[in-house]
Specification:
With 155 residues, the chain is an all-alpha fold. The two termini are 31 Å apart.
Length: 155
């Protein structure tokens, strides 16, 4: 059970932006909005033994990330829907699809940058022991990733 909780935490941290895009693409919104964010915050609090000040800072970081990521996730969802429509068409135009894929990839990179910024800010809040714990959890997740050691496929 402890190992499963570790995997869930590292997935939330490492795949945050990607998971959010997937959830948005399937109509689930951004982590169920406040409920899922609160659950993720609670999990971080327990897994890393966060202080009250750290908890408040993590909550603020998550809110900031959600605010910045939401429009990008909606944009990416729309881009992927357009690509699917083109692919499902009678005579898909490879050039047009390719250009839209490049644009969607750029949006994905923006989401990844937001996630990386979040992780940098989160790590800055942690003590050396908490950082080591987080790194162990991320490594455990990567070791068991279906993507061959990579946290997630690149956009």
């Amino acid at each position: 059970m402890k190992r499963n909780l570790t995997l869930v935490l590292s997935a939330a941290l490492v795949l945050g932006a990607t998971f959010a895009v997937q959830a948005q693409m399937h109509g689930h919104g951004f982590h169920g909005k406040a409920g899922m964010m609160a659950h993720r915050d609670d999990f971080l609090t327990k897994a890393l033994n966060l202080t009250a000040d750290q908890q408040a800072a993590v909550k603020a970081l998550h809110e900031g990330q959600r605010t910045k990521a939401q429009p990008l996730m909606q944009q990416h969802h729309q881009q992927m829907a357009e690509i699917k429509t083109l692919l499902d068409g009678a005579n898909p135009d490879a050039t047009e699809i390719g250009q839209k894929m490049i644009t969607a990839h750029a949006t994905g990179l923006q989401l990844k940058a937001l996630h990386d910024d979040f992780k940098t800010k989160l790590t800055a809040l942690l003590t050396p022991d908490q950082k080591a714990k987080l790194q162990q959890m991320e490594q455990a997740h990567q070791d068991h990733s279906p993507f061959g050691g990579s946290a997630a496929p690149e956009f």
